[in-house]
Amino acid sequence: MVAMKTKPTLCFWLNFLLPLLYAAADHESPSSASIIFATLGSRSNFAFDIFALPALDPPSIANEIQITDGQSLSFNGHFPSTSSFLSLLPDQAIIRTRVPPIQVIYVTERNGTSHIYYDAVFYDAQRSTRSRSALEVYERVQIPLLASTRGQNGISMKDRPSLTPEGLLVYVSTHEDTGEPRTSWAAVYSTELSTGLTRRLTPYGVADFSPAVSPSGVWTAVASYGPKGWDGDVEELSTDIYVFLTRDGTRRVKVVEHGGWPCWVDEATLFFHRRGEDKWWSIYRATLPSEGPISTESVVVERVTPPGLHAFTPATSPGNKSFIAMATRRPSSNFRHIELFDLVKKEFREITRPVSPNTHHLNPFISSDSSRVGYHRCRGEGNERARAQLLLENLQSPVPELSLFRIDGSFPSFSPAGDRIAYVDFPGVYVVNRDGSNRRQVYAESAFSTTWDPVRKGIVYTSTGPTFASERTEVDIISINVDGADQTGFKKLTTNGENNAFPSPSPDGKWVVFRSGRSGHKNLYIMDAVDGERGGLHRLTEGSWTDTMCSWSPDGDWIAFSSDREDPGSGSFELYLIHPNGTGLRRLFRSGSGGRANHPTFSPDGKTIAFTSDYAGISAEPISNPHQYQPYGEIFTMRLDGSGLKRLTHNSFEDGTPAWVPMYIKPTDVEWLKDGPRCSFEDCHWLSEMPNHINGSAKPQCHAA
User: Fold this and answer.
1) In this structure, which of 19, 313, 441, 482 has its CB flanked by the most CB atoms within 10 Å?
2) Domain pair 37-378 / 410-659, same fold
3) Distance separating alpha carbons of residues 53 and 649, to the nearest angstrom
4) d(CA 552, CA 557)
5) 3-state SS of 76-127?
6) Cα–Cα dist 667/71, whole Å
7) What is the bridge-based pairing of β-strands 2-3 and 136-144?
């Protein structure tokens, strides 16, 4: 590809240079440690790129175009209008002799953090070879639209960008801490691309998601919830639709109760999705009054798509009252697909299933002239732009002395020397060198959690048995000698047949603290590290609650753990510290009402704890993503005195099971060759739950063009 030459604006150069300056400043800071963590839901298999198909032509493999460049994840696109496109490219002479480009604004996770990019892609239709992308890219303009936002935590998630005709970029960002537990940091901002001036459009104390700008750019609609906050729902957020002026966020008014993912067809007509009383996700239309005050009472709401299938994340184009696009899940398919719905004939027309029947397609958007339907999907294994998978994916860290990595696995832990990683790749336990070489399975049965013995070389502890099981379920602690002669030998340390899990050895290697349900409640116990409970066992905590996910400090003075003792059985967990002799119990971190804080782990110097928490609420509508078992959870750190809370990760996925590395790892991705298919992630589980009734309606029909 050849990059087109343009006349960069001052804003462009600032966007380009600021991240480099910050990176240089970070490089000069002292470096001491690293953290690795897992992202659930097969995040490494997403490999999203933005594709498009003609809206009116028969769908075919030859007509599908891959628009984005195959780097990292690219998703949630928007086709800007021609006028807004011209504002980004000052040198117009270069496009006068070209076929009009395909332009897209989208979210991309590259260079370790979230960005919003603008691409103008020029294609040559004469080079068609009937391949996956029949139109070949021969020139591309690619511009990052925002500098890295370095607010209180330095890093933020971006989502659902759109561009007004005047060149005002509207998007979600999570860079401002609300200061309240379990309250979303998601808020809508606007940035003038010509000046870089940024405004917050969301009132403080409110969370806004999925912004959509009206065709004129005057109005913005959002899915929002107010001070009541997130209620913990992992399927459908309890949001309402609000509308406000794009220029400054004023004249904000609620127009629809119970709805999400709004989009405009004209200045008075909105489409959105909701799950109805019949349990089907469907698309609805809201018509705003042409005169007089706007309120939920004056807005007319009507259901558009019939029951019998799930329809969600709608998309429209300016003035197009003929059809809308949406993602669907039909009873006849295990995959979500993009379909058009004819608003006149009340018929569906399939767009993506004839092209890629066994691939998930997410979050459609339509070009301003209604000629193309865009969406994102996994680019696939055979795609020419596919990149190698990563064992360790570097993320930009808000802490200069700390490097941050996502691992392609779960429950990672580093060996004391820092040269090897143990982790779970369900169902077994694996060990791999830090550079991605010599990957091998060391335990083949179902297991979770891993930790290395600090004294005896090559000994890894884990829990074997089902996860999220009751107190009386058989789960046992084992130690694995990964350097043994057969390299698969293990020793069973618990024998009582109760739920024993989450081992953590003392720094001298003599003892292991773990969670056990042997009393009928999950509490903490300490046993001999070599001979297990046969060599010595005593109880550390006692009560009719759950104490779990324990971690022994490097100096041996403290054990950190997660507990629901404030409200047993509620599912709400907070962090506690206790001395190994049972004294000094104190709460370290308060989760807030119904909140969760889990998987605490000590830094190598013992002064800081990393953990997973939903302190920052939820960052995006869950249905807009692949399945996350609990679409909450970011990685945080905190000092042992409860101060210095810092959020390390910002995304809409579930991050968990952090582990410290006893050294600073250079912030560079580690590639490897991974067995197994690409794109093998799951769709939201609740979309597989098809209601048994269709309210007397005929089964919705679909037609492939």
Assistant:
1) 313
2) yes
3) 34
4) 8
5) EEECCCHHHHHHHCCCCHHHHCCCCCEEEEEEEEECCEEEEEEEEEEEEHHH
6) 17
7) parallel
Q: What's residue 30's pLDDT?
A: 36
Cβ proximity of 49 and 689 under 8 Å: no
DSSP secondary structure, 455-473, as one string: SSTTEEEEEES-SS--TTS
**339-342: long-range contacts, CB 8 A cutoff, minimum separation 24:** 339/311, 339/702, 340/55, 340/373, 341/283, 341/304, 341/305, 341/311
Q: β-strand 347-350 against 702-704: which pairing, if any?
A: parallel
The confidence score (pLDDT) of residue 4 equals 33
pLDDT recorded at residue 40: 85
Give domain limits for the chain. Answer: 37-378, 410-659
Dihedral pair phi/psi, residue 156, rounded to 5°: -150, 160
Fold designation for 37-378: Neuraminidase (2.120.10)
pLDDT of residue 39: 92
Position 532: which residue type? G
Per-residue pLDDT at 23:
40
Please give the C-alpha separations between residue 90 and each of 5, 20, 219, 672, in angstroms, as whole numbers.
Answer: 10, 24, 26, 42
Q: Are 661 and 36 in contact (CB under 8 A)?
A: yes
What are phi and psi for residue 86, nearest 5 degrees? -65, -30
Sheet holding 361-366, edge to edge: 65-66, 48-54, 372-378, 361-366
CA atoms of 435 and 391, how far apart (whole Å):
8
Burial 537-546 (b: 16+ CB within 10 A, else e): beebbeeebb
Q: Name the stretches of the chain with pLDDT < 50.
A: 1-31, 90, 92-97, 127-134, 148-153, 384-386, 695-697, 704-705
- The residue behind tokens 């969301």 is 202
- At residue 156, the pLDDT reads 94
Nearest to 432 by CA among 443, 444, 420, 441: 420
pLDDT score at 88: 60
> For residues 528 and 538, is the Cβ–Cβ distance under 8 A?
no
609: left (phi over 0), alpha (psi -120 to 50) or beta: beta
Return the residue matching tokens 């032509």: 57
214: its two tokens = 């009206």
Q: By the 8 A CB rule, do 81 and 54 touch? A: no
Rounded distance between C-alpha atoms, residue 407 and residue 577, angstroms = 27
C-alpha pair distances (Å), 332 with each of 114, 352, 356, 362, 377: 35, 15, 15, 18, 20
Q: How far is CA 643 from the centre of its chain?
A: 27
- Tracing tokens 């990176």 back to the chain, one arrives at 23
Which residues does residue 609 pair with via DSSP β-bridges, in sequence order? 602, 638
Amino acid code (one letter) for 662: P
Strands ordered across the beta sheet of 281-287: 260-266, 269-275, 281-287, 300-303
- With vertex at residue 208, the alpha carbon angle to CA 188 and CA 158, rounded to the nearest 5 degrees, is 50
Residue of 259, 262, 341, 258 whose CA lies nearest to 304 = 341
Compute, in degrees rounded to 10, the torsion defined by CA atoms 520, 522, 528, 531.
60
Nearest to 683 by CA among 117, 37, 46: 46
Q: Yes or no: say if 182 and 633 are a contact pair by the CB < 8 Å rule.
A: no
- Beta strand 646-647 with 634-639 is antiparallel
What is the third-level CATH fold of 410-659? Neuraminidase (2.120.10)
Three-state DSSP class for residue 326: strand
CA-nearest of 494, 486, 492 to 513 is 494
> What are the structure tokens assigned to 112, written together?
């370790």
CA distance 660 to 648: 13
